[in-house]
């Protein structure tokens, strides 16, 4: 069964991130269905989180989606690249999850056409995965999942979930908080080292 808004509320955001790992993100594009298993994601905890767009409860036209209902999508551009987030917690509590990496499962040929890359480089980063899916604009920003071409389906369970500080957060009192969660051993992680890659199970329970 697809995930509903209820999945994104009722528990702390860091717990929601861990539960999201192993979910298949599907984008029903006009060229065909594409998607992959979520293997890495980061929690951003709103008002007190110095790395969050809503730090200090700051609300702007650009980050308005963060204050939406649970299950709302938040897309934004960073240096011209598009990043995808899922909103957690009740409306007005600006917490979200950045999708950082996917293990491709669906429409891989189309994804390679979209990004002109192969192997782990196809989707092992937040802007890489949106490019591979064929997301080229912000048209689904602020929309609830059911009103978009995106679908989230539980598929697999990790053998082990690891965590670390978020990538690229270098300033502020929250830079060393371990709010990046990932499937240990999966080859498609951001900054994955070859010696840590498990190509047999990909880090999933059999």
TrEMBL record:
This is Putative 3-methyladenine DNA glycosylase. Its EC number is 3.2.2.-. Signal peptide: none annotated. It comes from Furfurilactobacillus curtus. It comes from the Bacteria. It is an enzyme of class 3 (hydrolase). Keywords: DNA damage, DNA repair, Hydrolase. Pfam families: Pur_DNA_glyco. Gene3D superfamilies: Methylpurine-DNA glycosylase (MPG) (3.10.300.10). PANTHER family: DNA-3-METHYLADENINE GLYCOSYLASE. Belongs to the DNA glycosylase MPG family.
